[in-house]
Design brief:
Strand content: 15-25%
Shape: globular
Low-confidence stretches: none
CATH architecture of the largest domain: 3-Layer(aba) Sandwich
Radius of gyration: 24 Å
Strand order of the largest sheet: 1-2-3-14-4-15-21-17-19
Structural class: alpha/beta
Bound molecules: manganese (II) ion
CATH class of the largest domain: Alpha Beta
Oligomer: single chain
Number of domains: 2
CATH topology of the largest domain: Aminopeptidase
Mean pLDDT: 97
Largest sheet: 9 strands, mixed
């Protein structure tokens, strides 16, 4: 063999899908992303993502799971956890004790939540106090249009859905920032303090209530409008989950339209692709397949809708029980793709990544063997055996893949739900889409990588 042949045979050479995939595949990626963008626009919060998921699932024959029922191969069920997380399953032909195949993504994203007592007036302007959710660079959330999404549970127990700022005729809201002319002191703050947590106040009104002796008439006028629209009083903010998210829609990026820019792609990009894979799953898969769309990942997966909770374990146990098997037997034989994003190489900030072990846009779905920080703290670290299995599966399925680490060693780090699912004695590896500007109000992914994630989950479910 000459050097060129040895090169081909022995060396790993990641490929840019824009160059190496067929034109048809790239076209399919583009058209897949039209559906993806629609999903992003109507699923900006975990609640909306669950709602949209259930709508799509019901169209594809999924029915609500009943733990007292016994299911047959090919049956399609969903299990809605409090409207904020959801699990879908298609029953396979193999006995469930052989294990299930799980794809687990999260549908919550960084945002600004309203405090329990948010409404106030200052200098005849009405504002909302917020408490940010997840890891944000606070300065990125100023001076951009924000929409208000969520629910209010009134004193009478009625639950009201809120969504303002998405329709063309809707008003939007914003966090104000200081003009550069007067920002001398602010500009000498550290970037992390450029905007402080208590400065993320939302501008919501400026016109006072007319012809009245009352004080704080701008605040009162806003409260009056909210009462007229939602029948709510100030105390109802306590029993509400109101979230400010970017008001803009998903867009193509670039002259070549090769990328998608949108809010909340971490991790709805894996949420949507794994959801589509289970919706498009063949009638009767070999093993039972499960798609989990979880909440609370961005705050550590705590709480009863986060994956440190037992709802996935209980769901598997219920499925197992109806076949007369222990849940732990099923879990111990199960496999999971922890479907989450990784950082894409950004040439503008190249020094935080190690070029040989970072993911690149258009190089396909990224396998992340371990996450964590420093000396691999807080990671489940997939075994060589399972990583080998996943790699073979992707190669056999013709899925373009690459590997990636989240930045240089000791540069920082982060985790996913992988560790919590691995703790259930499941084989887990992280697999997802590389993202630019992760956690920013406008994140960027490549359409090819999105489509390859879908193909990866589809291949995994069909194995
Ligand atoms: Mn994520
Ligand atoms: Mn994240």
């Amino acid at each position: 063999m000459n050097a060129k042949e040895y090169q081909e045979k022995l060396l790993l050479k990641p490929k840019n899908g824009g160059e190496t995939l067929s034109v048809e595949t790239v076209d399919q990626a583009d058209s897949f992303c039209e559906d993806y963008k629609r999903f992003l626009d109507c699923a900006k919060t975990e609640r909306e993502a669950v709602e949209e998921t259930l709508k799509l699932a019901k169209q594809k024959g999924f029915t609500e799971y009943d733990y007292q029922k016994t299911y047959q191969p090919g049956d399609r069920v969903y299990c809605n956890n409090r409207g904020k997380a959801v699990m879908l399953a298609v029953i396979g032909s193999q006995p469930i004790e052989n294990g299930v195949k799980i794809a687990a993504a999260h549908i919550d994203s960084p945002r600004l939540d309203l405090k329990p007592r948010p409404l106030y007036e200052d200098a005849e302007l009405a504002l909302f106090k917020t408490h940010y959710y997840g890891g944000i660079k606070k300065y990125q959330w100023t001076a951009i249009p924000l929409a208000l999404h969520g629910v209010i549970v009134r004193a009478d127990g009625e639950k009201i859905k809120v969504c303002i700022g998405e329709d063309a005729g809707d008003p939007v809201f914003c966090v104000t920032d200081l003009l550069p002319h007067l920002a001398k002191d602010q500009m000498s703050r550290k970037l992390s303090d450029g905007i402080k947590g208590e400065e993320l106040n939302i501008l919501i009104g400026s016109r006072p209530f007319r012809d009245d002796e009352a004080s704080e008439k701008v605040k009162l006028n806003i409260m009056r409008l909210l009462y007229e629209k939602y029948g709510m009083t100030e105390a109802d903010f306590l029993s509400a989950e109101l979230e400010l998210v970017p008001a803009f829609q998903a867009k193509d990026i670039g002259f070549d339209r090769s990328m998608v820019g949108a809010y909340g792609q971490d991790d709805r990009v894996c949420g949507y692709t794994s959801l589509r894979a289970i919706l498009d799953c063949k009638q009767v898969p070999s093993k039972t397949v499960v798609c989990v769309l979880a909440d609370k990942e961005e705050t550590g997966s705590d709480g009863n809708t986060g994956l440190q909770s037992s709802y996935l374990k209980y769901f598997i146990a219920d499925l197992a029980k109806s076949s007369g098997v222990e849940g732990r037997t099923v879990l111990s034989h199960s496999e999971c793709l922890s479907a989450d994003v990784n950082a894409a190489f950004d040439p503008t900030f190249s020094d935080v990544t190690e070029r040989r072990n970072t993911a690149y846009l258009n190089y396909g779905v990224v396998i992340t063997k371990y996450t964590g920080a420093r000396g691999k703290s807080g990671t489940s670290d997939a075994s060589a055996e399972f990583a080998g299995k996943v790699r073979r599966m992707l190669d056999q399925g013709g899925v373009l893949w690459q590997t990636g680490e989240l930045g240089k060693v000791d540069q920082g780090g982060g985790g996913t739900v992988a560790a919590y699912i691995a703790n259930l004695n499941v084989d887990v590896i992280d697999l997802g889409v590389p993202v630019l500007s992760m956690h920013a109000p406008f994140e960027v992914v490549s359409k090819i990588d999105v489509y390859m994630a879908y193909q990866a989950f589809l291949t995994f479910f069909h194995e």
